[in-house]
Amino acid sequence: MPVDDHPGLHGAETDSVYDRAGFGVAVPRGSRPALVVVDLTRGFTEPGFPTGADLTAEVTATATLVAAARLRGVPVIYTAIGYTPAEAEGDAVAWLRKAPGMRALLEGSDAVALDPRLDRRDGDHLVMKKGASAFHGTALAALLSGLDVDTVLVCGATTSGCVRATAVDAVQSGFDTLVVRDACGDRARGPHDAALFDLQAKYADVVALDDALAYLAETSARRSLAQSALADLGDLPATSRWVTSGPVRLHVLDYGPADGVPVLVLPGITSPAVAMDFVARNLTDLVRPLVLDVRGRGLSDVAPDPLRGYDLASYAADVDAVVDGLGLRDPILLGHSMGARIAARAAVTGRSPLRGTVLVDPPLSGPGRGPYPTTLDAFLGQVDQARRGTDADEVALSWPSWPRREQELRARWLSSCSRAAIAATHAGFEAEDFFDDWPKVPAPAFFLYGGASPVVTAAGAAEAAERNPSAEFAEIADAGHMVFWDRPDSAFAALRDALRKLLS
Fold first, then answer.
1. Residue 80 near residue 107 (C-beta atoms within 8 A)
2. Which residue intervals define the domain Isochorismatase-like in the entry (predicted)?
3. CB within 10 Å: which end of the chain, N or C, has fewer?
């Protein structure tokens, strides 16, 4: 039920009064949004329920919004109204005395179930409430603050009731607020239009679905680097080189020497190339390390299509592009975490012959397996922290055992990572099975893993050994997933031993 926004819709006198009052100014749009889907439960979206209406169009618009938010790592928060039998049958809830039809919204009933046309996943949040506002009597404000949100997009039902109350309280809780017109529904046109008019005038920007989608896309694409981060490049004993993979420009740090055996280093999900500088420096007496800024990180471009641009096939195509573009002959692929998964795929599908591969603590997750141990919210929270401005001391709270220089580099460079790249890659950890590639990775192949890693457990390492018996394995005792950062001496010893074997 869209609301026209042409001048004079509510009468010249009304428009004049509101203009004179200074209403209707556009709200700022921050860089850390969340989507709050208000009460799109069956009791409101299906006309067969006493409190319901046919909200097919609004549910469809919301599903599009949810998919876009999830793709870009934007938190999705659903709300629902539900009452206990004592509340529904008694007289303690004042709202039910005024609106007794709401008594049908019993906890656990079909009326309180999320509309099945919406896809709620494990990473989404659910806020149960008793009143109109999703903030009243709930922990929603604390949740949004904990997620470091600065802007709330609100949609759902009903526009004149719970959507309006939630949007008003969002503003009163300190969040800039957008109400997505096409994704809000009501039982009648009049209350719907009036509520959107009042919200636009005093509390929020009422926006079309396309505008909300564009905002999410623009927000997730934002990446930044401070001058202090760029200055780090001047301290590296490496040369920046550039290649293209289709439309994506890729940045590579080349540590030389030019006549050395090339080792293409592929970092993890939130590690720009500079984060692997200390690894590369440790290898220059043996090989020629080249560290890739994986697309969407560091100085490399983002994928033009985030729906298809951060899967293993796209990443492996970038490896081919670097090998071809820089003329690397018989390179070794060295990947850590995400980079190890990329190395495995490139070893199986790549165009160029390889001298060998070294995989370091690759995520073994995939369909039907356990989830990746670090949540998407944790990754995105760290990125948002970096965008807001962080320092080594704050990084040390998450990574206390890291060398100080590595904490400083992460503080300066993490903001260069695309939220969309992280979200899509994290989804790939569970949608793309490492074991589809690993048994096909040809010898010689080395598999290094942390003895205390939650990513490669003892059972996972045993399965990997069974599935590719030609590979050589090395456990780094007491190291977690961040093997080189956690136990650098023993990790480098194992890595150098693997490289020496490949060189011989």
1. no
2. 34-209
3. C
Cis check for the bond before 331: say yes or no (omega within 30 of 0).
no
Q: For 209-265, what is each residue's pLDDT tens digit? A: 999 998 988 876 677 788 888 899 999 999 999 999 999 999 999 999 999 999 999
Q: E strands of 230-382, at which residues?
A: 239-245, 248-254, 262-266, 288-293, 332-336, 356-360
Distance, in Å, from the CA atom of 6 to the CA atom of 15, rounded to the nearest integer, reads 11
Residue by residue, DSSP assigns 362-379 as: -----TTSPPPSS-HHHH
Phi first, then psi: give them for residue 127, nearest 5 degrees: -115, 120
Give backbone dihedrals phi and psi of 486, rounded to 5 degrees, phi first: -75, -45
Say if residues 471 and 449 touch (Cβ distance below 8 Å).
no
> What are the tens digits of pLDDT across the range 297-310?
999 999 987 778 99
Catalytic residue IDs: 162
Backbone phi and psi for residue 161, each to the nearest 5 degrees, phi listed first: -110, -95
pLDDT band at 11; cut points 50, 70, 90: low
Q: Which of 411, 417, 376 is nearest to 393 (CA)?
A: 411
Question: Quick count: other Cβ atoms within 10 Å of Cβ 360?
Answer: 33
Please state, in angstroms and rounded to a whole number, the distance separating the CA atoms of residues 377 and 423.
9
Rounded to 5 degrees, what are φ and ψ at 318?
Answer: -65, -40
Helix (H, G, I), strand (E, B) or coil at 293: strand
Sheet architecture: strand order including 239-245: 239-245, 248-254, 288-293, 262-266, 332-336, 356-360, 445-450, 472-476
Q: Which has more confidence, 242 or 50?
A: 242
Q: What is the pLDDT of residue 380?
A: 85
Decide if 192 contacts 62 (C-beta within 8 A): no
